[in-house]
Amino acid sequence: MHGTMVYTKLRFGPFELSIDERLLRHDGRVLPLGDRALDILTYLVGRPGEIIAKQELMDHVWSDVTVEEGSLRVHVAAIRKALRDGQFGNRYIANIKGRGYSFVGTVVPLAGCTENRNTKFLSQGRRPLRSVTMIGREKVVSEVGGKLRNERFVTLLGPGGIGKTTIALAVAGAVAEEFAGKVHFVDLESLTDPRHVAGAVATSLGLSLTSRDPGPELVDLVRSEKFLIILDNCEHVIEAVALLAEQLYQESEQIYLLATSRELLKVRGEHCWRVLPLDFPRDGSEQTANGVLRYPAVQLLARRVAARAGSFVLTDEDAPLVAEMCRKLDGIPLAIELAAGQVAALGLKNTIARLGLLKLAHRSAVARHQTLKATLDWSYNLLSDGERIVLRRIAPFVGQFTLEDARYVAGELGMGTGEIFDAIAGLVEKSLIATRIDEAQGQYRLLDTTRAYALQKLEEHAEVDVVLRRYGEYVAGYLESQRVALSAIGPGKLSYVPSSGETTTRLKLVRMRCRGG
Length: 517
Hints:
This protein is 45% helix and 13% strand. The protein is globular and about 90 Å long. It has helices at 35-45, 54-61, 69-83, 138-151, 164-175, 197-204, 214-222, 238-250, 289-292, 296-309, 319-328, 333-346, 348-353, 372-380, 385-393, 403-410, 417-429, 448-460, 464-489, 500-514; strands at 5-7, 9-12, 15-18, 23-26, 29-31, 93-96, 100-103, 108-109, 114-116, 153-157, 183-187, 227-232, 255-261, 271-274, 434-437, 442-445. Helix 1 (35-45) crosses helix 3 (69-83), helix 4 (138-151) packs across helix 5 (164-175) and helix 19 (464-489) runs antiparallel to helix 20. It has four domains: 5-116, Winged helix-like DNA-binding domain superfamily/Winged helix DNA-binding domain (Arc Repressor Mutant, subunit A, Orthogonal Bundle), CATH 1.10.10; 138-274, P-loop containing nucleotide triphosphate hydrolases (Rossmann fold), CATH 3.40.50; 289-374; 397-514, Arc Repressor Mutant, subunit A. A five-stranded antiparallel sheet has the order 5-4-3-2-8, with no helix packed on it. The protein has a five-stranded parallel sheet with strand order 11-12-13-10-14, with helices on both faces. Strands 1-9 form a two-stranded antiparallel sheet. The chain is α/β, with parallel strands linked by helices.
């Protein structure tokens, strides 16, 4: 809030900062912290949720002397040590790479401790840190907001890089007034121990838990409040998140939950919203600049290239190249943003020619989004052994395939049919396989980025030859059955029936395509 009334004692988690006394306490015990570190902490706590540039911090703390950035890092490290930042699910100071620092805990002023000063403090709630710039998601944000109001518990489901967090932040901004600003963003990415999930949520809410069974204690503390809690990146601690989310939903009437995950929580009250890729120009669509710029994927690419290169004008000559790039990237926002950096540096033609999807990088992104490989590693590491085996063995499939197709190609080396079908179901649930179910049977497909990653894993495990041989046998059998079926229709009814020799030639081309030739 803005104004002249400022609180001089502030609480965040189990810590109390007394500004007039210049003391930091933990459960009543004074913590040793130097003057410069206290100045930095006070400045950050005074503007929670904002990203403060490093130079601004240095100018404020060392106004009378010139210092190197290393001095700032040393003092921030001391603050983090005092706050036990990052331990037990607690997180207070975030380093926004390339931009600065931000205090990410919830700041609660202590009543009766005020003074007049033209400064500001956020009294309650926690606002998301990241700026929300969206293209092509306006309708989704509106519809998810409506579903959240009606159902209280929505999970945004989709693969890594699809834009789940961006949509969640935009929804939070759209409904914040309805919660009087009590919107709490809980980034679960840094958690490695599921037992700390409840603690991470409590820290975001400005609470300190003492019970050995923190879930019920947290529910008791908040059941009468009205909050929106955003649970971001749930998949790696999904069982603990699912249990807590179900407790919060069932044992309160005013707690609203918006989760983002690559896998559903599968608990009562949860409503799924599957996040789809941005729409991109399909084969056969208009390939002029005006034609392709109607698609959100192209709009995002053009905007990101312009931001990195200073300007970008899409011409009719380049329009087919941009359309091809967006198709190869499957309309995934993260992949498009990463590719934009390559376009700005190398140009469109060179980028498409060397579109090494797994090598694209973005330094300022969170760790799992700095490269496409990191994003896919995050998902791959959460798979069971059987799911990993099947994922890499279905990599040769360029387009759609069925369960039987997958069974034939992945079924060698001792895997049974039931194991393969279970693995396919698991990969669908974890957003690594796209699926379409019709009346006849399910059709499955790997996104091109996922397929490139799976082929790499196939090579790492020295299974390329045996799996491609199985895939070749599958393709040969399929083409031969098609040739026989077409021949059975009878002469004169078809102008062309492939010969056995042509079937063999097609098989060679398929193998070359699988290997990237």
